[in-house]
Amino acid sequence: VLGRGGALPPSERITMGFVGLGGQGSGHLLGGAWTYVPGGYVARNDVQVLAVCDVRKERRDHAHARCNQMYAQRYGQASYNAVQAYNDFRDVLARPDIEAVLLALPYHWAAPMSILAMRAGKDVYCEKPIAITVREGRCLIDACKRYGRIYQAGTQQRSEYAGKFRAACEYVRNGRIG
Q1: Residue 2's Cα: distance from chain center in Å?
Q2: What would the pLDDT profile of 82-124 be if each residue is shown by its tens digit?
């Protein structure tokens, strides 16, 4: 509780739910060849994964089992069952103990589900696209302001990898490379 022995105290960890556990979502959650977080978010000391959600049972069950297994190993326990699995994203959003959600969804769900998450008091990281219409994009911005939530779109080449992609774009724009 106090963060002794090098552990982060609960007050310094973000509690998260993951909705959409296909290639992109499970890569963020569990790590993958393309991810910048070794072992995924479940391996981070500053994150506590509390929920996984997917309409496909095999994805949901795999993520659920793997997260609980990783936490059991981390905490030196025979078993661990604090990560819950859900079929319906609304059950994840209804949990008051979840502060943020990572959404990796079909395009038509990105803006509506992000808005619902912010309305439920969650900060949001959502894989691209941000929205499928300009109007949806405006509604998303309005929701951020209305609910006072943080939103980040998943555009890895713009926000990750120590700015290397951003630097490459600048080289092209400035004519340093063709």
Answers
A1: 26
A2: 999 999 999 999 999 999 999 999 999 999 999 999 999 999 9
CA–CA separation, 9 and 14 (whole Å): 11
Which pair of structure tokens corresponds to residue 151?
């939103």
First-to-last alpha carbon distance for the chain, in angstroms, is 54
Residues paired with residue 154 on neighbouring β-strands, in sequence order: 127
Q: Determine contact, residues 68/83, Cβ cutoff 8 Å.
A: yes
Look at residues 91, 105, 104, 149 and name the one whose alpha carbon lies nearest to residue 124.
Answer: 149
Q: What is the DSSP string of 94-147?
A: T-TT--EEEE---GGGHHHHHHHHHHTT-EEEEESPS-SSHHHHHHHHHHHHHH
**Amino acid identity of 5?**
G
CB-based contacts of 128-133 (< 8 A; 24+ apart in sequence): 128/153, 128/154, 128/155, 129/153, 132/107, 132/108
**Three-class DSSP labels, 12-42:** HCEEEEEECCCHHHHHHHHCCCCCCCCCCHH
- pTM for the full model? 0.84
Of 87, 116, 107, the C-alpha closest to 153 is: 107
**Any idea how long the chain is?**
178
Q: Single out the residue of 73, 23, 26 nearest to residue 53, CA to CA.
A: 26
Residue 157 in tokens: 């080449």
